[in-house]
Design brief:
Largest sheet: 22 strands, antiparallel, barrel
Strand content: over 45%
CATH architecture of the largest domain: Beta Barrel
CATH superfamily of the largest domain: TonB-dependent receptor, beta-barrel domain
Shape: globular
Length: 805
């Protein structure tokens, strides 16, 4: 299959390159784009059904040269503006002038998205709700990486789960990270191992936008899209441009226990270049970051880890002909993180140490071809990501706590979109495709001398999938029906029970009814599944009470399946002088044979592990997401999102060793959470924004120690830690307090001509220093007992210079 697809790409490419070498037509179109009497710079101007396109310059003018001869549709589109088009007939050696007058779309109702159905779709016409997160939102909320930016989306919450290594995960609609499919440019190569820390490694300057689809998307993107999908769309060159952004932050300003703040410095560089004929272009980006560790309670152990991060990436394209495009994007991320105590020492010389060295390399090659005048298109792609990780998860100077992990994820596929002016009852679009995803995971335990002593995991997972989706769009009703069939093989050479295979049929359906152009109702259903494999996230080893706590699968673990239902109503209305977009979305997901982490005692000394089992009964997640966007005036914008939900198992699950340590609730899942952003831009130069993030109370397991399990000097140390209140005795289910985190940002722009500017900005994150006040202390602490905001009060200062803000 791989050879056939690659051979097809090669043959088609050669044919197109040969055709592209024909004599130029000198059929040109020039013009300008205006809105409310003012020229609009840097907006997209494209030819429908082709790969031809350009952007307006700093004065709002454009030119398209050497176009195909005949009738063409020219389309103007851009973030914050409604798409519009005009039809023109081009002729040999003739230049035509076409001017556009466009309308603002400040709420981005009609922005183009691709995650809804693997095809470019007007967001307002998509049969599922798609939230598009722009770079402006991430900049206004002082998000330095996408993990922070995703907090400002309904139903999403990024949380920190470990004091020693800073492990974070994204929860969508109350479900843990592995239930959400992370895509890079619509490709499922962002492995779970990269996802453990990877969302923090992707800088916002790398991203064109983030697209979020809540609810099952497994029919198009694979089994793990149970809670939903996050698609990271990286930037692509559109014009010659550059940008430099330097920022310095002081963490822990005004903290009671810490006299010296931790420093966090970051430098972002971006540049793009494109040829005069617009056929070839390239974009590069990089990030350098260095963050000190932070100790919130003065016990000598970190609550925020030390980070050293270097990210570099590129995106290049070439258009062999007017209907074809070859794209290649890649990235290389290097990261070092260290937490615990005695950070200047070797890991095995510290009392507690978690240290990770990551090297992540990824690439995606794709080929797009419009096959006819009806805008039918075939896309083929090959993607891969390699993760190399050196680790140390150890306590009490353990010499054998080093590890080496290799992870290679690859994806190969093709899909074809074709259109029909009328199929059954309405115009339609059909997409059919096939893809193959392979994931290899090898984890070895090392001694201090670097020699391998134990192979923990050597797993191969291969999933071959095929899918079809049909979408009808009419004046009143849009319908989407999809079906996917996956067959997976799992082979674990280190486990007798680690081999399994199965075929899974995954349907999806969505309907949108338009009461009026401003009032739309959507309802949907999707099935999903998770295979009984060893998950990359299991390689995050938690340290609890100076003991390594690992996760492993039970021998009889079987596939988990889900049935997800969503319903929403979306209204866009003008109230007085304000423009408003209101969304209310209900969701219900039922899990059959859900995975649950069961407390598994290892010995009589209090050592334990988590064993992944299938819960005796099912589980469910249900709730409602509410979102409101409003432009109160031309200068004031606000956005508010809130989630109310319940996440429960249908029977009690053991989270600890004691008989009373059981609960039906999902751990670490609040029933209420939300956010708000307010932006005020009174002039072209000055901008200020206020951001609020709310996390409600939730249940968090808290593990302590039993003095009866110790003797001698160790018993004395344990008893002293309990008496001092550094740790607890036994175990308890804590109902953690809620938090409201407020951030404030000011920026001022200085313009140099039409295209270049300099921006000075300053901000405060977590103004009121809302942090957890009951961290454990010392060597015997429960590092997983962390539930508060990810960082204390932090002051940032920065300067940007360039023309791609």
């Amino acid at each position: 299959m791989k050879k056939i697809i690659l051979l097809t790409i090669f043959i088609v490419s050669v044919n197109l390159i040969t055709r592209a070498q024909k004599k130029t037509t000198d059929a040109n179109v020039i013009g300008d784009v205006q809105c409310d009497g003012e020229h609009v710079p840097f907006i997209n101007v494209t030819i429908d059904g082709t790969t031809i396109g350009t952007t307006t310059d700093g004065t709002g003018h454009y030119q398209l040269i050497n176009l195909p001869v005949g009738e063409l549709t020219i389309r103007v589109s851009g973030m914050g503006y409604k798409s519009t088009s005009k039809t023109v007939t081009t002729e040999l050696d003739k230049t035509i002038e076409i001017k556009f007058d466009i309308e603002k779309d400040v709420l981005n109702i009609e922005s183009v998205v691709v995650t809804a159905d693997r095809n470019q779709t007007n967001r307002a016409e998509a049969p599922v709700v798609v939230t598009s997160i722009s770079p402006d939102l991430m900049a206004n909320t002082q998000s330095v990486n996408i993990a922070e930016g995703l907090d400002f989306t309904p139903g999403l919450r990024t949380e920190t789960n470990c004091q020693n290594c800073g492990f974070t995960q994204l929860r969508m609609n109350g479900m843990e990270g592995p239930y959400t499919q992370i895509l890079m440019n619509s490709r499922p190569v962002f492995s779970g191992l990269a996802g453990v820390y990877g969302l923090e490694l992707i800088p916002t300057n790398m991203v064109e936008r983030l697209e979020v689809v809540r609810g099952g998307g497994s029919a198009l993107f694979g089994g793990n899209a149970i809670a939903g999908t996050v698609n990271i769309i990286t930037k692509e060159p559109a014009r010659n441009s550059f940008n430099i952004d330097g920022r310095i932050g002081a963490i822990g300003i005004g903290g009671e226990e810490v006299s010296t703040p931790a420093l966090d410095g970051q430098l972002n560089l971006n540049a793009s270049v494109i040829t005069d004929d617009r056929k070839t272009g390239g974009y590069i980006y990089s990030m350098l970051r260095n963050r000190d560790s932070y100790d919130a309670n003065g016990d000598g152990y970190s609550e925020m880890v030390k980070l050293e991060n270097t990210t570099f990436g590129f995106n290049v394209f070439h258009k062999p002909g007017s209907k074809s495009k070859i794209s290649l994007d890649g990235y290389r991320i290097s990261e070092f993180r260290r937490g615990g105590n005695k950070l200047a020492y070797l890991p095995h010389e510290a009392d507690i140490a978690e240290q990770l060295d990551h090297l992540i390399t990824g690439a995606n090659l794709s080929f797009d071809l419009f096959t006819n005048g009806s805008y039918d298109k075939i896309t083929t792609y090959a993607s891969a990501q390699r993760v190399s990780r050196g680790s140390y998860y150890g306590a009490q100077r353990d010499l054998d706590a080093y590890g080496d992990t290799k992870n290679l994820t690859s994806s190969l596929g093709a899909h074809y979109n074709f259109h029909s002016d009328m199929f059954l009852f309405a115009p339609s679009t059909t997409i059919i495709g096939i893809d193959n995803t392979n994931d290899y995971l090898h984890d070895v335990k090392l001694g201090a001398n670097g020699d391998a002593n134990t192979t923990l995991i050597k797993q191969y997972v291969n999933t071959l999938g095929s899918f079809v989706q049909h979408d009808w769009k009419s004046e009143k009703v849009n319908v989407s029906l999809g079906l996917r069939y996956d067959y997976y093989w799992i082979k674990d050479k280190e486990s007798e029970g680690g081999h399994s295979s199965n075929g899974v049929l995954v349907p999806r359906a969505g309907i949108m009814y338009k009461f009026t152009p401003e009032l739309r109702f959507r309802v949907g259903y999707a099935k999903g599944y998770r295979a009984p494999q060893v998950f990359n996230e299991d390689l995050h080893i938690e340290l609890v009470n100076a003991t390594r706590v690992e996760t492993f699968n039970s021998d009889d673990l079987k596939q988990e399946t889900s049935n997800a239902f969503t319903a929403s109503i979306n209204s866009v209305a003008s109230i007085g002088n304000t423009l408003n977009d209101f969304l209310i979305e209900g969701f219900y997901t039922h899990l059959k044979d859900p995975f649950s982490n069961e407390y598994y005692p290892l010995d009589d000394e209090g050592n334990f592990a988590y064993m992944r089992v299938n819960a005796d009964d099912g589980a469910y997640v249900t709730g409602v997401n509410i979102e409101w966007k409003s432009f109160l005036t031309d200068e004031i914008e606000t956005q508010i999102g809130f989630t109310l939900q319940t996440s429960k198992y249908e029977s009690v699950q053991a989270w600890g060793d004691e008989e009373t340590s059981v609960s039906k609730d999902f751990m670490r899942t609040p029933n209420q959470y939300g956010y708000a952003t307010f932006t005020w831009k009174p002039t072209h130069h000055f901008n200020t924004s206020l951001s609020l993030n709310y996390t409600g109370s939730m249940y968090v397991p808290h593990f302590g120690l039993n003095p009866d399990d110790y003797e001698g000097d160790e018993l004395t140390a344990v008893q002293e830690a309990i008496d001092n209140g550094d740790i607890i005795e036994g175990e308890a289910l804590k109902k953690a307090d809620g938090f409201i985190v407020a951030d404030l940002l000011f920026s001022y722009d200085i313009h140099f001509g039409e295209e270049t500017e300099m921006q000075f900005y300053a901000g405060v994150k977590n103004i009121f220093n809302q942090i957890q006040n009951d961290y454990d202390k010392g060597m015997y602490r429960d590092a997983g007992y962390i539930y508060g905001p990810s960082s204390p009060r932090t002051i940032n200062f920065g300067i940007k210079f360039g023309n791609i803000f």
